[in-house]
Amino acid sequence: MPFLYFPEDKSEYIPAAISFTIFMILMIITYRWILKISKKQEAESKKIEERVMREREENIKHTAQHSHDK
């Protein structure tokens, strides 16, 4: 009883090749879409990080000025 099936008629490979090609194209599209979303999220997080760091520096300066005034 053979475990693997290799058809004599090679035209039976055509549906498998077509479905494989379709899934590969979909996989590539999905991969590129995920990369695009990831880059957008990275840019947004950098903006938030820069804003937080800027506000933190301002708070440190503000606190330092008040401590010198007293």
Task: Describe the protein in words.
The protein has 70 residues and is mostly helical. It has a domain of 27 residues. The protein has one helix and no strands. The N and C termini lie far apart (93 Å).
Query: Describe the biggest sheet?
Result: none
Query: What general form does the structure show?
Result: rod-shaped
Order of helices and strands: H
Which percent range describes the beta-strand content?
under 5%
Roughly what is the average pLDDT, rounded to an integer?
90
* Helix share, percent: over 70%
Low-confidence parts:
none
- Cα(first) to Cα(last) distance is 93 Å
Using the CA coordinates, give the radius of gyration. 29 Å
Transmembrane segments: 13-34
Keywords: Membrane, Transmembrane, Transmembrane helix
Protein name: ATP synthase F0 subunit 8
Task: Write a concise keyword list for the protein shown above.
70 residues, 81% helix, mainly alpha
Q: Helices, strands, pairings?
A:
Layout: H1 13-69
Can you give me a brief rundown of this structure?
The chain is an all-alpha fold. It has one helix spanning 13-69.
